[in-house]
Amino acid sequence: GVSAFEDVPGAAEVPVYAVMAAFSKDPSPVKLNLVFGVYRAEDGKPHVLNVVRRAERLLIENMSANKEYLPIAGLAEFNKLSAKLVFGADSPAITENRVTTVQCVSGCGSLRIGAEFLAKHYHQHIVYLPQPTYGNHPNFFLAAGHTLKTYRYYDPTTHGLDFQGLLEDLSCASSGAIVLLQACGHNPTGVDPTFEQWEQIRQLIRLKGLLPFFDCAYQGFVSGNLDMDAQSIRIFVADGGECLVAQSYSKIMGIYAERVGALSIVCKTADVASRVNSQLKLVIRPMHSSPPIHGAAIVATILKDREMVTEWTVELKAMVDRIIKLRQQLYDALHDRGTPGDWSHITRQVGLYTFSGLNEEQVALMMKEYHIYMSSDGRINVAGLSEKVVPYLAGAIHAAVTCM
Ligand code: PLP
């Protein structure tokens, strides 16, 4: 008989996964993968941190550990440590019990749970996203029934922040609207506001009564300093106001596939926080019911041990330094070739990515002629480079820019 699913239309593959598939099929020995936001070592291979390996060994040797279900909100110790990591160990919001934190399925799951909670328990369902932003951001909020709007963020002429546009657009937002902010290492642009600009953004958001929802996927990955990279969030928490924070450990601990993250909601009072926590559990229950334990246990093992935290931050700093060095090498290579255009944004931009300014046709040409794969918006994963391949990339960019 006819399939029950006969009328299911085929969907297009998610664009970055389509590029990945094309990369896998490409037989060229010089092919270069700069698509996904993952850190690679200088040899181009996936990188597992020593401190993570060490934590895993400790977990395996711990004979009193078991694999029974976690509570709906996840590993309590992990939640506490995650809140301390992002808000600071002596944050008044934590000591006053105004923060509720639930373990979620990485950054994505934290954003999704946050979006669902807001759809059910918050009066305003308009969400402002930066233009451009992480490609999955719209999905979390659309799936929860919110209405999307954008605020200006990136200025293609300066390859920097369109601060005036950002302020104008948020000034026009209706009262109570949700504003998604990337805490640091903005994906895909590599452009972050300065601390002074954050302070102005905070004032505007508080003045207009908007609700900030921070996506924090790169804490420590920008400056190498965990406190510095959380500063944007901390100034919002310091004013006593409310916000949501979605944390991801994928990039900062290199545990992408473990899917470890947390959603924190900072409230005005401990009583509100406790009621919010009770409702978060009702949101989670029909979604994943309770989160997986292994990745959260890795993170908790590291974060509760001062010496392991130090080891982690040293490894984090080494990753950041390698990225910064590669930015300089790529800039120098283009500069030395006399490639038309000002490429100084490559070293100005921060975090894992550079938003190269290459257009869709140039990206397509580099894929076809040079087997270099990046997202169609021209975003380059800097950590996918090495000293050895920088000249090849620079040559390809030069060709793409001069012939189109
Ligand atoms: N938020 C931003 C800004 C990201 O760049 C990413 C991953 O690329 C995520 C969230 C999702 O992270 P996770 O893999 O932890 O779900």
From TrEMBL:
Q: How does it assemble?
A: Homodimer.
Q: Which organism is it from?
A: Hevea brasiliensis (Para rubber tree)
* Gene Ontology BP, a term: amino acid metabolic process
Superkingdom in the source lineage: Eukaryota
- Name of the protein this chain belongs to: Aspartate aminotransferase
Taxonomic lineage of this organism? Eukaryota, Viridiplantae, Streptophyta, Embryophyta, Tracheophyta
Q: Which SUPFAM superfamilies match?
A: PLP-dependent transferases
Q: Tell me the ranges covered by the Aminotransferase class I/classII large domain, including all copies.
A: 31-397
A GO term from the CC aspect: mitochondrion
